[in-house]
Amino acid sequence: MAELADAHDSKSCGVAPRVGSTPTIGIENREKGFRDKGFHVSGIPCFLFTEYDSRKENRVRTIVFGEVKWKVKRIENERELQRKSKRGRRGELSREKLLLISDDNAEIEYTFEELLEIFIEDCELRNLREHTIKYYRSELNAFVKLLKEQEIELRVSEWTGETIKRNVIMYMKEKGLKTVSINSRLRAMRAFFNFLEGRNLIKSNPMKDIKLLKDRKRIVETFDNQQIKALFKECDLRTFVGLRDYTIMMLLLETGVRVNELVGIKTTDIIWEQKVIRIRNTKGGFERFVPIQDKMINQLKKYIAVRGSVDTDYLFITRDDTPLSKKQVQNRVIKGRKGVPYGNGLARCLPRLLYTSKERTVGII
């Protein structure tokens, strides 16, 4: 009767009863189970029934009350779980447990990888653009790679301002990196270490007294009419890819949008009646409208008619009907042009070059 009382207690605790067939009396099978003890309550046959879970090597004991079962005990290997728990207490506490008991997070020795993930998680919580998060991760990993190349101690607590000056800035300059590339990495490092300092995850900020390098501002050269014509003649308008590339370059010339903004344009962003395009994927996060002229509208209508109906709403797509990426625009539309100057460096500055050339190129395409 004690077992039955336990069964009623388990029921009252919210354990859902399981309906099952009464096992055959006299059967003993280790794979399926066996009957332990039988008794009667108010004329209803009741008995304990033990089942085995071969996958977990657990024993589950249930009381069968007529046709209803209640689980009252399980996990025969409970002792093994306790032994594992004791073994875990003999080593060092995990980072999470240390955070619970520590009054000063800076006392905990974090690896760079752990701090990077904490920083990236915060960026995601602040809803930063995917492009921005990718930039942070790429530049910070490149920073650590520089230290590894010089066999510098990778303990974050050991990094100082001198480490940044000698082993990052000077090292990159010796490798021939341009000032704009060095400053781009320093900006990512500054954001990273300022975050760690604000969260009290480091005792001292190695970027505290580090300033960006001074860079001379150069005049951006523009295309002349001949170069613009050569650029557009590279497009084979008898093919979908050629028509798409032609439309892309014409839109860059018309609006001066960034490549990242261009690939984010959807067909629904074109407001034909108002002759404007909504730019959503902006650098600062603020949407804006850019006006377009009749010639650009007609070109977009031709392209959309050839593009047809596909699963994606993005305006510019590949031959496989997938959205065109920023890298694809740079490699295919820009770097692949034979009749234009500046070589591969054109990929970054083409939108600005086209837009600043606009006044002198009206009517040549």
How confident is the prediction overall: mean pLDDT? 74
**Gyration radius, rounded:** 34 Å
Q: What order do the SSEs take from the amino end to the carboxyl end, as H and E?
A: HEEEEEEHHHHHHHHHEEEHHHH
Provide the low-confidence segments as ranges.
Answer: 1-35, 65-76, 339-349, 355-365
Strand order of the largest sheet: 1-6-5-4-3-2
Query: Which structural class fits the helix and strand makeup?
Result: alpha+beta
The percent range for strand residues is 5-15%
Sketch the major β-sheet: 6 strands, antiparallel
Share in helix: 40-55%
Apparent shape: extended
- The count of helical stretches stands at 14
| E-strand count | 9
User: For the terminal residues, how far apart are their CA atoms?
Assistant: 96 Å
Could you give a quick summary of the protein structure above?
This protein is an alpha+beta fold. 45% of the residues lie in helices and 13% in strands.
Describe the structure.
It is a single chain. By secondary structure, this protein is of the alpha+beta class. 45% of the residues lie in helices and 13% in strands. It has 14 helices and 9 strands. The strands form 2 sheets. Strands 1-6-5-4-3-2 form a 6-stranded antiparallel β-sheet, covered by helices on one side. A hairpin with an 8-residue loop joins strand 8 and strand 9 (288-291). It is extended and about 70 Å long. Residues 1-35, 65-76, 339-349 and 355-365 have low confidence and may be disordered.
